[in-house]
Amino acid sequence: MFAVKLKGKITRDHQLQVELPEDIAPGTVEVIVLHETPAKPAKTTKKPRRRAGRKVTHPAFGIWANRTDISDSGEFAAHLREQMESRRDRRG
Prior knowledge:
Shape: elongated
Order of helices and strands: EEH
Strand order of the largest sheet: 1-2
Number of helices: 1
Structural class: alpha+beta
Distance between the termini: 19 Å
Radius of gyration: 24 Å
Number of strands: 2
């Protein structure tokens, strides 16, 4: 298997058009589309930013407050992130 980067366009009727080099043999290919213009973001309701003195209403706020085994929540969160980033997916 080899990879080649090509430029192309998507037409109004959603057809992909690319010019292939002569040295690419006929056969099955897998296509990954990287679109230059971002798609419109899904509509979401934006939550207002927290300001000093305002009560935080996020459901996850304070979930570690009563944990006696966590002395530094920032350090604990960093450790969780490190575990997730170094995790090996056993599927496959």
